[in-house]
Amino acid sequence: MVPDGKEGIEKFQSPGKGRGLRACRRFAAGDLALSCPAYACVLTVGERGGHCEGCLSRREGLSKCGKCKKAFYCNVDCQRGDWSMHKLECSAMCAYGEKWSPSETVRLAARIIAKKQKTQLERTVSEKMMLVSELEAHLDKLGNEKKEMMEADIAALHHFYSKHLDFPDHDSLIHLFAQVNCNGFTIEDEQLSHLGSAVFPDVALINHSCCPNVIVTYRGIVAEVRAVKDISPGEEIFTSYIDLLYPTEDRIERLRDSYYFTCNCTECSTKAKDKAKMKIRKLSTPPKQEVIKDMLRYGRNAIEDFRKAKHTKNILLLLICELSLDKMGLVFDDTNVYILHMMYQAMGVCLFMEDWEGALSYGEKIVGPYRLHYPAYSLNVSSVYLKLGRLCLGLEKEVQGVKYLKKAMAIMEVVFGKDHPYHKERMTNSVQRL
Ligand SMILES: [Zn+2]
Ligand SMILES: [Zn+2]
Ligand SMILES: [Zn+2]
């Protein structure tokens, strides 16, 4: 056991929360509190070709795996380093062709099983404070829907990975999938595009708060935890497990659903931001309470409906956004989070359709209210500034573009660190344009 985290944090029993991490020294915003290499990670299928399968770096001119021609690497070292993981999929992808379709959770679980077999009982560098086997599973809280999903995942695991893996018994697999479900991390880039999934056991020790004092970002396959507020020695460190845009009721439901606990952070008890998050439009005759309630229900359903419709044609998606924006706009202010949610989705669709002007106009409406609702150092805010910056530069609005990029960088240098490739890339990009 490593008694104290070398990086100035230690494991402790957090009252009412179980295990947690706390600071042993002072941290200022931007300070690195912890870094943890992935115990196991997987590049999402959609990013193949743009990122190295081994180190997850974003690069041009990667070389293909000669056998499956589906995995790409920076160089021979990355390829060799990844072979023990890639071999689980390489020949299966050739054999199944189009029919090769395990979910990302299944792919990650397969890698964890392989890694466990490889490392046996030895403590890896990702497990200085907590072992993978010690990750919380919350087996007793699983609902039927989740159980069914896990059974389907286990079937897929057997189907696609039987050649190279010795599977543990069924109960152990259920336990593993339950652990991955509540402790798996989604790796995103600086624009919040999904890159893959991973487990970082030490980082999984950090408890949740809707007013977090640290943020987790990724440098290749390493998770980095940086302070986003001043933290005093002895203070517990908290990250946010969820998108913090939404009002208390929504956040609590999400946390209960996915992580099985009720948040009692300051924001959840005071609900201080809820009023602004659900702001009503100023009208000569204010809408009745019933009308507001109905619209809230409509807003929540609209989020769900859009999520379900995600695979339909873009032009239809944009129509869904516009219709719901028109409807909600009768009651909700433009800074209302349900309006913002739909505008953000609309911006995404416009980007996808290469409607740059459309994307820019949605982004400009979003970014101000985002600053209001999100914490000071938020990737949700910096990623919108980044997109706006790039859009403006593309549309030859240089001055405005550089302004946006600078705003993005002011946040990025704290959350990613000044030496992060994402930050450095932007620096050069915007300085060259000045
Ligand atoms: Zn690489
Ligand atoms: Zn291959
Ligand atoms: Zn909370």
From TrEMBL:
EC number: 2.1.1.354
Keyword S-adenosyl-L-methionine among record annotations: yes
Origin species: Scleropages formosus
GO CC entries: nucleus
Reactions listed under catalytic activity: L-lysyl(4)-[histone H3] + 3 S-adenosyl-L-methionine = N(6),N(6),N(6)-trimethyl-L-lysyl(4)-[histone H3] + 3 S-adenosyl-L-homocysteine + 3 H(+)
SUPFAM superfamilies per record: SET domain (SSF82199)
GO biological process: methylation
Top EC category: transferase
SMART domains in UniProt: SET
Gene that encodes the chain: SMYD2
PANTHER family (alphabetical): HISTONE-LYSINE N-METHYLTRANSFERASE SMYD, N-LYSINE METHYLTRANSFERASE SMYD2-B
Domain of life: Eukaryota
SET domain segment(s): 7-242
One Gene Ontology MF term: histone H3K4 trimethyltransferase activity
Keywords linked to the UniProt accession: Metal-binding, Methyltransferase, S-adenosyl-L-methionine, Transferase, Zinc, Zinc-finger
Record's protein name: [histone H3]-lysine(4) N-trimethyltransferase
Residue ranges of domain MYND-type in the record: 52-90
